[in-house]
Amino acid sequence: MNNSTIAAVIPAYQEQKHVGEVAQRALTQLEHVLVVDDGSTDATADRARAAGVDVVVHPQNRGKGESIKTGLRYWFDRGSEYVVLLDADGQHLPEEILRFVDATASEAEPPRLIDGDCVARVAFDVGAVMVTAGAVVSGL
């Protein structure tokens, strides 16, 4: 797996306290990191930008699921093949991203995530999720 095709999405709502540090730590593991600020009224987006990552801001709170969809769409539209999801509060350790990716690469057939209009191969480890664009099937 080529690390340049792997990106991270960090959905965030009112996470000004932790999001900057989590984003910086993720950026030491991957070159493509996005924080999706889900309508926060605090400095979440500013802290994420200061960390040097890409930031998308929802004008109002739409929920974590919508933030994840926004992030997946953002990276898959830009050619990423894999996306790792991390929590903005530091619950998932960004330092374990590459270990997680290596473990996922060794899986013959990862579990599947079904989300209404698509099926994506995913792998679960260390509390995070990685989704691969190559296995997304539309129209189901």
Description:
This protein has one domain (3-109): Spore Coat Polysaccharide Biosynthesis Protein SpsA, Chain A. 28% of the residues lie in helices and 29% in strands. It has four helices and eight strands, in the order βαβαβαβαββββ. The protein has helices at residues 19-27, 44-50, 64-77, 97-105, and strands at 6-12, 32-38, 54-58, 82-85, 112-114, 118-125, 128-132, 137-138. Strands 1, 2, 3, 4, 5, 6, 7 and 8 form an eight-stranded mixed sheet that branches. A hairpin with a 2-residue loop joins strand 6 and strand 7. The longest helix has 14 residues, at 64-77. It is globular, with a radius of gyration of 14 Å.
CATH top level class name: Alpha Beta
The CATH topology corresponds to Spore Coat Polysaccharide Biosynthesis Protein SpsA, Chain A
Total tally of structural domains: 1
State the CATH architecture: Alpha-Beta Complex
Please report the distance between the alpha carbons of the first and last residues.
27 Å
Average of per-residue pLDDT values: 81
For CATH, the homologous superfamily is named as: Spore Coat Polysaccharide Biosynthesis Protein SpsA, Chain A
Low-confidence blocks of residues: 111-128, 133-140
Q: Report Rg.
A: 14 Å
**Strand elements, count:** 8
What structural category do the secondary elements indicate? alpha/beta
- The backbone outline, from C-alpha atoms, is globular
Estimate the strand proportion.
25-35%
Task: Give the SSE order as H and E letters.
Answer: EHEHEHEHEEEE
Main pleated sheet: 8 strands, mixed
